[in-house]
Amino acid sequence: MAELISIFSEETDRFAAREKIREIFFLTSPLGDNFKKQDRECFFHTWAGWYLDSLPGETLLARNAECEIVGYLAGCLDSNAAFPLYRHIFYFKAFEHWYVEYPAHFHVNCHPDFQGYGFGASLVQAFIAYAMKKGRNGVHLVTGEKARNRSFYERLKFCEKACLTIHDKRLVILARDCRVG
Ligand SMILES: CC(C)(COP(=O)(O)OP(=O)(O)OC[C@H]1O[C@@H](n2cnc3c(N)ncnc32)[C@H](O)[C@@H]1OP(=O)(O)O)[C@@H](O)C(=O)NCCC(=O)NCCS
Questions:
Q1: Measuring from each residue's beta carbon to the nearest atom of ligand 1, which residues come in under 6 Å?
Q2: DSSP secondary structure of 74-131
Q3: Whose CA is nearest to atom 16 of ligand 1?
């Protein structure tokens, strides 16, 4: 695993790490501002908290030279087995036939002050290496068809597999064979 990338489950202070993840999550997910307190908690739980609670060994953290957490990747090595996500993530079922070939998925976010410095790429590359080590040869993610982050994933050799309109949103599944160098 790359230097400065660590696994959430190995944090000595998981509570502090979780709070930092929460801060980064809401800074990078402006939709959260529309929710009342309890709904904000559900929103966080769906996209990050569930991963921290259920799969703490599959979530990665990136630290800067000052050792501050500046980004995280909430990962899931086996999407087909992640039953709660079928209920909570609105697009999860629609793309499920891809999860056989590309079983692992993730959500990655970097603090706005530390975007564009390569922390996101280090997190994704570490997750790909980790997935391969655990016997998963394919990784995927879902994003907006025209999202700014597409170029980021495409530079990391993720390719579009399908594009669907779900809840009035154009969404793409981008996937990568982990064995591609
Ligand atoms: C996408 C993201 C994880 C990439 O991490 P990073 O460390 O900033 O990325 P890198 O330095 O490795 O690569 C830079 C690329 O990231 C993407 N990026 C940078 N800032 C971004 C932002 N505010 N929003 C969306 N994508 C962004 C762009 O594709 C950028 O390439 P470009 O400069 O050619 O446009 C990070 O920018 C981020 O958290 N963005 C906001 C939330 C987001 O889009 N998360 C992904 C959800 S699917």
A1: 28, 108-110, 115-121, 141, 143, 148-149, 151-152
A2: EEES-GGG-HHHHHHSTTTGGGGGGGTTS-EEEEEEE-GGGTTSSHHHHHHHHHHHHH
A3: 152
Shortest-distance atom of ligand 1 to CA 24: 39
Full set of structural domains in the chain with CATH: 5-177 (3.40.630.30)
Going from the Cα of 110 to the center of ligand 1, the distance in angstroms, rounded, reads 8
Q: What is the pLDDT of residues 159-177, one digit of tens each?
A: 999 999 999 999 999 999 9
pTM metric for this prediction: 0.95
Closest protein CA for atom 43 of ligand 1:
109
- Nearest C-alpha to atom 37 of ligand 1 is from which residue? 115
- On the question of pLDDT at 1 being above 50, the answer is no
- Which of these ranges, 33-47, 130-144, 160-174, has the smallest mean pLDDT? 33-47
Pairing of strands 69-76, 159-166: unpaired
